[in-house]
Amino acid sequence: MLGGILVQLFTDAFANPSPIDRDTIERISGLALDFTIVSAIATMSFTGLEDSLLPFFILVGVTWIWHLLCFRFLAPILLPDYWVQRSLAELGQSMGVTSTGLLLLRMTDPENQTPALAAFSYKQLLHEPIVGGGLWTASVLPFLKSSGIWPVVGVSCSAVVLWLLVYLFYFRQRYARKRQEEDDGGDGESVSLLASNDAGSEDSATSSSQSPARQASTTSFGTLPRADSCA
């Protein structure tokens, strides 16, 4: 991903027009994504669960409840637009692997018509070095063994609270301004539409107040001479 950003910056700086075709890159990335999803699902292993079925099912049940609550109630509030596509990608990744999230996103947005895939990709730049196989993933098991479960729970809850505060004090204001701008644009269109409707109503009232002879002189072909003027 970082390599792709560097290539794009290089071509934007030294190649005009850019030799990279966006449609071709999207086709290649879509094919690579399909191969990634198929290979990830085909290599999943469930060995070693025979002795831990009860804790496994408890963990799965609690995880399902938490993620479904986040998907149903938090996602429409926290995400600015296309919350179904965006949250399904996060749901699949957090409950499985990145390929699972991309698979769900592919099912809901097969033509890549929403910004969900781009937003998910940019999020990975921050997510992967820390959580997705990064620092926290590598250190959580030694930390859990040395300190117990509650310090790990405290760190996890602190991370959730931190990002909620980031949303409340930064992203919510940006989303509110964006919605306000969209509403203002919609109100402007509504005002124009109301004005045109009012003008049409006035024209209709004027037309209805005209004499029958004047109304009869107007047809779909234009304004015809009135009978009294021809006499």
From TrEMBL:
Family annotation (InterPro entries): GltS (IPR004445)
Claim: Transmembrane is one of the keywords in the record: yes
Biased composition (Polar residues): 193-222
Gene Ontology biological-process entries: L-glutamate transmembrane transport
This protein's UniProt keywords: Membrane, Transmembrane, Transmembrane helix
Region (Disordered): 181-231
GO cellular component, one term: membrane
Residues annotated as transmembrane: 56-79, 149-170
Superkingdom: Eukaryota
Protein name (record): Uncharacterized protein
Species: Salpingoeca rosetta (strain ATCC 50818 / BSB-021)
